Amino acid sequence: MNAIPVTLAGATTLTRVSERLAADLAAILRQAVGERGHASLAVPGGTTPREFLTALGRCDLPWPQITVMPTDERDVAPDDMRSNERMIRECLPLASDGYAPLRADGRPLEDAAMELGNRLAPLLPLDAVVVGMGADTHIASLFPGDPRLGRNERGALPPVVPSYPAGLEPRLSLAPSPLAAARWKALLISGDEKRSALTAALETKDPVAHPVCLLFESGASPRVYWAE
Ligand SMILES: O=C1O[C@H](COP(=O)(O)O)[C@@H](O)[C@H](O)[C@H]1O
């Protein structure tokens, strides 16, 4: 198995990796606020990031100057157990206007994606993005086999796109460009299964088959925070 450039040495539990990621990210956010007066951040949903988000929520940060959004959102109510917004709000002491939701709120997802993309445009490029990955190598809600992820196709995508993964609820997702073009990128994964999947994916360099490849294609590669 080829070595992935994992950022950490010695910190291997999800708790320690999460704390390290939170501390590194906090420094990036402070720097962004210092330089530009504001910071924009996208964070993942799912099960892995709760400890990281909790650790970030404990950091001494200028929250009124920070806008947080999810990398993707399931089309569920914001108080649903599967809502990424719900987890993010539970973990972070956000300012009242410090959260940029990716919610359709009953609208067709295509309409919502267009409107939310226009609203997010002034925040781009994002100062920081933390991305999770499924064992199938999906990132945000960009899933394997989606032809929109091809090199010639993705340039036409707006910043937010609808996504209809088989067997799961529909979603809204940040598109490849805002994820890949962030000023600072991190990939948070846990477990040998995902590490093996990441290693195999990077060997293919195929973002349609393995969306995680999108993060490694151009510009700086993400820092990989891997927990055993
Ligand atoms: O559905 C999602 O899955 C991925 C991975 O989640 P995990 O539960 O395996 O950690 C996540 O990054 C994404 O934001 C989420 O909506």
TrEMBL record:
It catalyses: 6-phospho-D-glucono-1,5-lactone + H2O = 6-phospho-D-gluconate + H(+). GO terms for biological process: carbohydrate metabolic process; pentose-phosphate shunt. One of its GO terms (molecular function) is 6-phosphogluconolactonase activity. It is an enzyme of class 3 (hydrolase). Residues 16-215 form the Glucosamine/galactosamine-6-phosphate isomerase domain. Its EC number is 3.1.1.31. Pfam families: Glucosamine_iso. Pathway: Carbohydrate degradation; pentose phosphate pathway; D-ribulose 5-phosphate from D-glucose 6-phosphate (oxidative stage): step 2/3. Belongs to the glucosamine/galactosamine-6-phosphate isomerase family. 6-phosphogluconolactonase subfamily. Hydrolysis of 6-phosphogluconolactone to 6-phosphogluconate. This is 6-phosphogluconolactonase.
